[in-house]
């Protein structure tokens, strides 16, 4: 249960403030003024002595002027976070809960504009600013930069401070501790070219010999090329076990050539310019300590996956220069830079059989996701009709210039349509019926998009680029591709260079986009076997998948995203990678993580065949059919093996809870909630729930997807107002997580307690769900305890399905009806008093107060949101009872009155 409230927690104030770009001190002490000077006007605040591996919350007051014109911008200001080691050196941490990676600062959070702030802020022109984040284990300080972005007038930030909260969960930060035995990373080499490896190590104390990089170069047969190697120190037997000539099974190989890695300062970035010896085609790279087994080991670790790239003259920017090269011209320049004779690049062009033998994992994933996708149709007069991204049919002009944007007037449709159009995946479908037409259009796209000057800048988006890379391979597999082969191969190769830089530099971090880029690069390497870079690309892709899949499909079940559809997309990609990865590493690892996650997702399907709609939701998908295709089975029963065994079942995951009941004559019932980790750029849905009874969906989620909604609609769908959660009056939740604190068996029911930290430090929050075994109703109870013991009011929301008719029958009762069925809803208080009950439908005067909508394909549809408030002092506790009929309500009310439940709720 909830731990007792801590004594007054410390507040960290900045020890130093620096200004640039027109920013400066405000008119009062503790106030900082930022002018309207995009990204340049900024204040940097330094904090010291932060608690490692704890959640902290940045708190300040944001104020603006009456003349401000950027009020609706979701990126009004930018808060940048640069974490510091004990000696003040900057930490390049791979991932920080609650923040996202950006270019200007290592990690950031966007601050929304005045119109997006809570109700009432427009009257006083100020609002509370709160950003929560996890402090990395190596960090002892923070350089916080607050930047101008979309603001048109000056703004002020008053009294910025950091307040620590609960500890981070174990495993929240991925640690890469170094020991005496390295785990070699295998990288393919391009014969005659060097390799550049960059990264950062952190040591508990400064030292000249903190760690080493051990290297073994291998020839094309896999045999070790003995050291010495250029630029390394060769130590015979370094890392070898005494008396062992060859490493046995399970032993790590000896790595006798090394490069020293100092840690002066503690967080030290390194760049290794490696020069492979003649004949080397592969490199085993291992990071480890200088100390041997049995010696006292220092605390040294890598702060992220090392970046791997070819030498600078073979970067895409260097190869293209300022020239607008066409695809064959790019091949010719690449061949010349390798020192080959003119025309030698023709040997790299694969035959249809070679290209056809390469698996296309992204295309395979799309087919597993939807069987019915028909993106292109041939018309009788010879024209083409495209059906992309769920948008209406559109006739392709002849010839297209690939700047087309037929849905520009509706941005929610335009962006996903343009991504689908520029991905060119529809050409593979066209090639089945009209291969010559598909090849002609592919060449037309290539002519219209010389590298560096795309016809549509969105064509370089990670949602389009990897998928398009596979298209060139698919078209090269056509028997009639001969004349177009130089163009297709040139495009495949330069797309490969772009993907290699994305993958090697870990550009998109822990994300589906990063894994999709690696999957496409793996396909290119397989389809171009004679290209000198194919081995290098294959190694980059496999290493990226080996490192990335465990982070996104963790074995402990603590996912970094509440969206079950995103997890399903990850699982689908993992299944599509089964053939191209095979049994070689990381094939078995990817297969194991995929199967485990797929099993959990199948268990979360409701009896109607849908996944609970938390986080990002893909509209129009058949979830049960999708999962059935992944499992190689048909029908819903195959997805729910317990459906035939018991009328009731429940599933408790590390970040969610699901229960279902199905009896003849009454119809199925279902409940699900999420308490997955949230972030500023994600949905504020921690502890949100959905409920169905009598085969009728009553409590629903607003839904939405980042590829469809933008602007005010997007802001609303991410906010707490679009979810079935409780919030402290006047504030929005911050980044955080929930933790299942235990269950209590009750007569005919069970209670589940979830503790969260999404309301910031100084407040303890517990949400309890009381679920009858037959799911004929439920009660959701929230308990808030304020550290200062002052007045406290919380509001909670319940989103009802759009087809529901709702009537308020009094100050404490709501009646909902749908299709001849009813649901009664009654707010109640346990500590404090009920302070209001109302419904909202379609409120939209400003983004910060928008409420009462759910997503239907492409649009927001008005729907009823029930709001109730509970107020008190110190500790406030209350909730909402809902039941399908009178007997169910009476039974649940008796359960709520039991003494053991009261103790379960109020225990401190």
The general outline is globular
Radius of gyration computed on alpha carbons:
29 Å
- Termini separation comes to 7 Å
Number of helices: 19
Task: Explain what you see.
23% of the residues lie in helices and 31% in strands. The strands form nine sheets. Strands 32-33-34-35-44-39-38-37 form an eight-stranded antiparallel beta sheet, covered by helices on one side. The protein has a six-stranded antiparallel beta sheet with strand order 1-4-10-6-8-7, with no helix packed on it. The chain is an alpha+beta fold and 908 residues long. The protein has 19 helices and 44 strands. Strand 15 (207-218) and strand 16 (224-225) form a beta hairpin.
Blueprint of the fold:
Elements: E1 16-20, E2 24-25, E3 31-34, E4 42-48, E5 54-63, E6 77-84, E7 100-101, E8 107-111, H1 121-124, E9 126-134, E10 141-148, E11 155-167, E12 176-177, E13 185-188, E14 195-203, E15 207-218, E16 224-225, E17 233-234, E18 257-263, E19 267-274, E20 282-288, E21 300-302, E22 307-310, H2 316-320, H3 327-337, H4 352-357, H5 361-369, E23 376-378, E24 384-386, E25 394-395, H6 411-423, H7 425-433, H8 435-448, H9 465-476, H10 485-504, H11 512-527, H12 534-552, H13 564-576, H14 578-581, H15 587-603, H16 623-631, E26 648-653, E27 656-663, E28 667-674, E29 689-693, E30 696-699, H17 711-718, E31 726-728, E32 738-746, E33 749-756, E34 763-772, E35 777-786, E36 791-799, E37 805-810, E38 813-818, E39 821-831, E40 833-841, E41 853-856, E42 859-862, E43 864-873, E44 875-883, H18 886-896, H19 899-906
Antiparallel strand pairs: 1-4, 2-3, 3-11, 4-10, 5-9, 5-11, 6-8, 6-10, 7-8, 12-21, 13-20, 14-19, 14-21, 14-22, 15-16, 15-18, 15-20, 17-18, 23-24, 24-25, 26-27, 27-28, 28-29, 29-30, 31-36, 32-33, 33-34, 34-35, 35-44, 36-43, 37-38, 38-39, 39-44, 40-43, 41-42
